[in-house]
């Protein structure tokens, strides 16, 4: 099966990036969200990112214009009826994703593949909600999507090899490196990353070091490009909490218990860079200012 049209549901940090790399790879893209303002914000992020590539000479003016020209936005899932592949990137909440995949499973054309960009929710469960478990797969991109090389490909219990092959091919055409993992909580990326972030938050809560020292130690001592608290802000604290809860439930081990400070910050709406404040403070362009 050849993929020509890709639908992306959710125009947030991840969905807008996925739409951008899909369009840059030559696919026709329909980007769907629930409100015009979210679509506008997503498109603005795509324009900014493509603009930077153009400025740096990484793409031509023509490639820039063509990529933008291939992206349509919509408030209706009905506009995904013709898509060959639909990638979901909505909020990290199993109930929300379930409702969406029940609808997508019913309206997408029978041969279409459905993929989730979930960070941690079991692919096998989402596959079941979609009613087409053979044509369902995890396609886990990394933030910021236009810059990060990896796509973690997660096969559910019933995902077919043909589906895996199509998605691997699409990821490669987007210029990414797909790596396959089994469907266990947090897959590999977040099973390793999130407990580290959670532990950094616990260390901050206990007063072991300041946020600047915690981040500096991991940047300078471990050569991480970002410290764990900066990275948590970048990912979104709501997403971090949701992933820790999946790990905690999935493994039943207390070592995955979400930090109470993480929980409190999410309750306060301090979700990180996307809202302007988390562990640090950010301006409208997302630059750290405090
Ligand atoms: P976000 O909060 O930036 O964007 C989510 C978007 O989905 C919002 O625009 C929201 O309006 C929209 N949305 C919510 N419900 C919807 C629905 N029913 N239909 C259509 N649109 C809907 O979140 P972000 O960071 O883009 O995360 C999205 C997904 O990607 C989550 O599953 C997350 O776990 C995953 N992910 C996030 C990463 C990160 O670093 N933030 C990395 C890899 C995966």
Automatic annotation (TrEMBL):
Organism superkingdom: Bacteria
GO molecular-function terms, A-Z: 3-hydroxybutyryl-CoA dehydrogenase activity; NAD+ binding
Binding site for CoA: 49, 56, 119
Protein's UniProt keywords contain Ion transport: no
Record-annotated site: Important for catalytic activity: 140
One GO-annotated biological process of the protein: fatty acid beta-oxidation
Keywords on record: NAD, Oxidoreductase
Every 3-hydroxyacyl-CoA dehydrogenase NAD binding domain range: 6-183
Residues noted as binding NAD(+) in the record, renumbered to the chain: 10-15, 33, 92, 97, 119, 143, 274
Keyword NAD assigned: yes
The 3-hydroxyacyl-CoA dehydrogenase C-terminal domain, residue ranges: 186-282
NCBIfam families cross-referenced by the UniProt entry: PRK05808.1, PRK07819.1
Protein's recorded name: 3-hydroxybutyryl-CoA dehydrogenase
């Amino acid at each position: 099966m050849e993929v020509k049209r890709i639908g992306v549901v959710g125009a947030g940090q991840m969905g807008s990036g996925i739409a951008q790399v899909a369009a840059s790879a030559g696919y026709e893209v329909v980007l769907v969200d629930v409100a015009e303002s979210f679509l506008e914000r997503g498109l603005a992020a795509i324009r900014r990112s493509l603009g930077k590539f153009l400025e740096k000479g990484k793409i031509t003016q023509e490639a820039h214009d063509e990529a933008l020209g291939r992206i349509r936005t919509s408030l209706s899932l009905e506009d995904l009826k013709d898509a060959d592949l639909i990638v979901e990137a909505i909020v990290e909440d199993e109930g929300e994703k379930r409702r969406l995949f029940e609808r997508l499973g019913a309206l997408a054309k029978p041969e279409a593949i459905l993929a989730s960009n979930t960070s941690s929710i079991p692919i096998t469960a989402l596959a079941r909600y979609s009613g087409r478990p053979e044509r369902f797969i995890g396609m886990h991109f990394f933030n910021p999507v236009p810059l990060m090389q990896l796509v973690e490909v997660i096969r559910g219990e019933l995902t077919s090899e043909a589906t895996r092959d199509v998605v691997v091919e699409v990821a490669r055409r987007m210029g990414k490196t797909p790596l396959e993992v089994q469907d266990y909580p947090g897959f590999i990326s977040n099973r390793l990353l999130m407990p580290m972030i959670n532990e950094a938050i616990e260390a901050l809560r206990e007063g072991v070091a300041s946020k600047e020292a915690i981040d500096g130690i991991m940047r300078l001592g471990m050569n991480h490009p970002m410290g764990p608290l900066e990275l948590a802000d970048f990912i979104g604290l709501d997403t971090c909490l949701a992933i820790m809860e999946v790990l905690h439930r999935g493994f039943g081990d207390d070592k995955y218990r979400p930090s109470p400070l993480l929980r409190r910050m999410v309750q306060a709406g301090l979700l990180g860079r996307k809202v302007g404040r988390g562990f640090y403070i950010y301006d409208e362009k997302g630059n750290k200012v405090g």
